[in-house]
Write a structure and sequence with these properties.
Length: 74
């Protein structure tokens, strides 16, 4: 199932990037561009990351350095 239809990025791809260490929508965007066009998928990506897709999420929550979140779409 596609998460990002602009770039044809699937849920599986987002999860594999998360497993590789991408813990924020911005890091997912750096890995595969998802979320960098219309932005309509950013919330879906956030939801995927929030469901434990990222094994390093706890480190991020403890204040380990992570890149800033994307700004909210206006
Ligand atoms: S659906 Fe992902 S940027 Fe448009």
């Amino acid at each position: 199932m596609f998460v990002c239809s602009c770039f044809g990025v699937t849920e599986e791809q987002v999860k594999s990037h998360a497993e590789a260490g991408a813990c924020t929508p911005r890091q997912i965007a750096s890995a595969c561009k998802a979320g960098t066009d219309c932005g309509g998928c950013v919330r879906r990506i956030q939801a995927l990351l929030g469901r434990g897709a990222c094994p390093r999420r706890e480190l991020a929550d403890q204040g380990a350095p992570v890149l800033a979140e994307l700004p909210e779409a206006a």
